[in-house]
Design goal:
The complex is a heterodimer of chains A (195) and B (183).
Chain A: H1 11-19, H2 23-45, H3 48-64, H4 75-100, H5 122-141, H6 144-154, H7 160-167, H8 171-189
Chain B: H1 3-11, H2 19-28, H3 30-48, H4 56-71, H5 80-109, E1 125-130, E2 135-142, E3 145-153, E4 157-161, H6 171-182
Helix pairs in contact in B: 1-3, 2-3, 5-6
The chains are: A mainly alpha (195), B alpha+beta (183).
Chain lengths: 195, 183
């Protein structure tokens, strides 16, 4: 468990301690950010287990290369950029494998949407799964940059400036990507009842 | 206020337009009001399908794997000679697989028994062949024979695409590319 004192430290302090070999500081960074990293990866991949793999790969890379974090952006921005790249790489790799092995991703048992921890109403659960499948399919049709910008905005909670930093593009481009993604996603949801 | 400005504000809010201006526009413009309703529907869909945080057990398992990997010694950087040998070894393995499938196809059909046809096979087949526990080889089978297309690692994705063009005139770049995919 992370040191209780770590709870009060800023990310920058934890990063400095982590560089010095403080395992409790690294665990606190993981505890703080793995949830948002998981949500971002899940939206990018549409698959729970793949999202966990991407989060794992992203954290391993980030924590191994803490020395590369220059502090120009926040740690979360830097981490989410790495996790996003890990997720997009994994998505490309899995898609190619699915095509080569002629596996229909929609039929893959493990590719279902996230299950809520507790859900007493099966019809609600089914509706949520259908909705998640629809939304994941719609996100998948967006280009990687647009999908990533939108996901980093709505799930990562990053600002336009932070996304621009992560994507290496001007803020105006980021805003256009989010606008375009939202328009597309909204059009896919037209006619869906119960929303 | 133009509709496009309102829609852009709804999709990517800024403090350049105040909410009273937006509300007034939506009250008088059915197209923008409809777009705003669709935006609310998307927000609800996102909310309904948002994954929860992994439980404590999943957290511990994931953190354990991350920490193990972070604590593991970084892979030693190979010399150019070692890297050349490594790439050569991968190519040799691919060639072995190619030879195996070529011989298998020959054995299957037998000399002179290959079905005669005026046209090539109608469908070109791709197959995934395991080489080791973590590595697979993609082969393409058609009337012209068997061809190794790509080596794949489950850890790092493609190791080598045989129809891909490697950087010309810079062997080191090529080695870096192949090695990074192989690790």
């Amino acid at each position: 468990m992370p040191d209780a004192a770590c709870d009060l430290e800023t990310d920058d302090v934890l990063v400095a301690k982590g560089r010095a070999g403080d395992r409790a500081a690294l665990e606190e960074l993981f505890r703080r950010h793995h949830g948002v990293a998981h949500r971002v990866a899940y939206r990018l991949l549409g698959h729970e287990e793949d999202a966990k793999d991407a989060v794992q790969n992203g954290f391993i890379k980030a924590l191994r290369h803490l020395g590369d974090f220059d502090g120009r952006s926040g740690f979360r921005t830097w981490l989410l950029k790495i996790v996003t790249n890990a997720a997009l790489d994994l998505g490309r790799s899995r898609r190619r494998r699915s095509m080569l092995t002629l596996v229909d991703p929609d039929l893959d048992d493990a590719s279902g949407p996230a299950e809520p921890a507790v859900d007493d109403d099966p019809s609600t659960s089914l509706r949520r799964q259908d909705l998640a499948r629809l939304l994941n399919g719609a996100l998948d049709r967006l280009g990687g940059d647009k999908r990533a910008a939108f996901v980093l905005f709505v799930e990562g909670g990053l600002s336009y400036e932070e996304i621009a930093e992560a994507q290496g593009t001007p803020i105006g481009t980021v805003m256009s990507r989010i606008y375009y993604a939202r328009q597309k996603l909204q059009s896919y949801l037209q006619g869906v009842e119960g929303l | 206020m133009r509709c496009e400005q309102i829609l852009r504000h709804l999709a990517t809010p800024t403090d350049r337009i105040d909410s009273a201006t937006v509300d007034a526009h939506l009250a008088s413009c059915t197209a923008c009001a409809s777009w705003s309703e669709q935006a609310d529907r998307l927000n609800r869909a996102l909310e309904l399908t948002r994954p929860g945080d992994p439980g404590a057990a999943a957290f511990d398992a994931l953190w354990g794997r991350v920490l193990t990997a972070v604590d593991a010694p970084a892979p030693a950087r190979l010399s150019v000679r070692s890297r050349t040998l490594r790439v050569g070894f991968l190519v040799a393995r691919a060639a072995a697989v190619l030879l195996f499938f070529g011989l298998s196809a020959r054995y299957y059909f037998g000399p002179g028994e290959r079905p005669e046809t005026d046209s090539p096979l109608p469908v070109e087949s791709l197959a995934l062949v395991p080489i080791t526990e973590n590595e697979t080889c993609v082969i393409r089978i058609n009337d012209g024979g068997v061809e190794v297309v790509q080596l794949d690692s489950s850890d790092s994705g493609p190791i080598m695409a045989f129809n891909a063009e490697l950087p010309a005139g810079n062997d080191n770049d090529a080695l870096n590319l192949l090695e990074s995919m192989a690790e």
